[in-house]
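Can't paste images in this forum, so I'm doing it all in text. The chain is below; anyone willing to post the predicted structure tokens underneath?
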Amino acid sequence: MLLSFLKENTDRQFSIEEICEGVNQGGGHDISLSAVYRNIAKLVEDGHVRRFMRDGSRTAVYQYIHCRNCEKHLHMKCVKCSKILHMDDEATETMLVAAMKKNNFKIDERKTMLYGVCDSCSEDI
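Text version of the structure:
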């Protein structure tokens, strides 16, 4: 149930409480917070889910990794709707190589998030 919920929402990050609420609302299930904590830890350990810190808080949030090379490319986060987008491999490589050549600096793509506004939200501007 937990993995199904995260797979249905690959472009979003959720706190443990939000995951619990989403799973329980989605199909009339009654999963406990402790069950979510136990299972999410295993999913992170196995590399199926990534853990991030929510912007401006101490809250951990989790996101399903839906592609094999998720750790090998950069991610972009919309500051309006919080949607997570995956930068394609070619664009990621171009940016990483440029940073290394110009600044002699190796970027850790697993921990790097680019912030901006997605196409959907930019229409509102």
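The chain has five helices and five strands. The domain at 1-66 is CATH 1.10.10.10 (Arc Repressor Mutant, subunit A).
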